[in-house]
């Protein structure tokens, strides 16, 4: 996935915002919280960092083309960086959606409502 494709994918998710920070990284947020970072890896290729569940963190840490995200994982956060995983665009899209979901669920209920996120339709009691 190119940086342009990465940015297009993240932009398409509801209520996201984008900033360039930390030395030219594309930083994607939901409700002011980071869920994805696009950067250039040590080899000059794109590198994408995202939040994961603890299980996926351990799984991906041992998978070729992935590593604990620099700076974030060393501080105890479950963040992974995909830096050289050929033919893994579908996997990356899945993990970016999951990161978005995980981060959005950590927002206050009020902010989730304001952004139109994670809302369950109300069921009427007694109707069936």
Descriptive overview:
Helix content is 33%, strand content 26%. The chain has 128 residues and is of the alpha+beta class. The protein has a single domain, classed as Aspartate Aminotransferase, domain 1 (Alpha-Beta Complex). Strands 1-2-3-4-6-5 form a 6-stranded antiparallel sheet. A hairpin with a 2-residue loop joins strand 2 and strand 3. The longest helix has 17 residues. The protein is globular and about 45 Å long.
- Note the beta-strand portion: 25-35%
Q: Which architecture name does CATH use?
A: Alpha-Beta Complex
Question: What general outline do the C-alpha atoms trace?
Answer: globular
Top-tier CATH class? Alpha Beta
Task: Give the CATH topology.
Answer: Aspartate Aminotransferase, domain 1
Share in helix: 25-40%
The run of helices and strands is: HEEEEHEEHH
Our count of helices gives 4
Describe the main β-sheet briefly.
Answer: 6 strands, antiparallel
Overall average pLDDT: 89
How large is the radius of gyration? 16 Å
Unreliable segments (pLDDT under 50, ≥5 consecutive)? none
Q: How many strands appear in the DSSP assignment?
A: 6
Overall tally of domains: 1
Distance between the termini: 47 Å
What topology, given as strand order, has the largest sheet? 1-2-3-4-6-5
Query: Structural class, from helix and strand content?
Result: alpha+beta
Secondary-structure map with pairings?
Elements: H1 3-12, E1 16-21, E2 25-30, E3 33-40, E4 46-51, H2 54-61, E5 66-68, E6 79-82, H3 89-105, H4 109-115
Antiparallel strand pairs: 1-2, 2-3, 3-4, 4-6, 5-6
